[in-house]
Amino acid sequence: MDIKERITKFQEFIKYWIKETGRILRLTRKPKRSEFDEVTRITGLGILLFGFVGFVIFFITHLIKMS
């Protein structure tokens, strides 16, 4: 594959990527307040859950090292 073919394929990829990105952006919309609140609540619960699991693992490993 020579350099001209590689450049052409790269240009086609960029054109395709721009076209698909534009299509996705046309489909998006601003979330309603209730949707935003729900996503925020779920994300916060996920962060707390992962933090708690990490703390429990840290605590258990700390107890194992002490014994």
Q: Could you tell me the mean pLDDT?
A: 95
| Number of discrete domains | 1
Helical fraction: over 70%
Termini separation comes to 63 Å
State Rg. Answer: 24 Å
Stretches with pLDDT under 50, minimum 5 residues: none
Summarize the SSE layout with pairings:
Elements: H1 3-27, H2 33-66
Structural commentary:
The chain is mainly alpha-helical and 67 residues long. It has one domain (3-66). Helix content is 88%, strand content 0%. The protein is built from two helices and no strands. The chain has helices at 3-27, 33-66. The model has no long low-confidence stretch (mean pLDDT 95). Essential subunit of the Sec protein translocation channel SecYEG. Clamps together the 2 halves of SecY. May contact the channel plug during translocation. It is a single-pass membrane protein. Belongs to the SecE/SEC61-gamma family.
Features:
Protein translocase subunit SecE, Translocase_Sec61-g, mainly alpha, 67 residues
Provide a short characterization of the protein structure:
This protein is mainly α and 67 residues long.
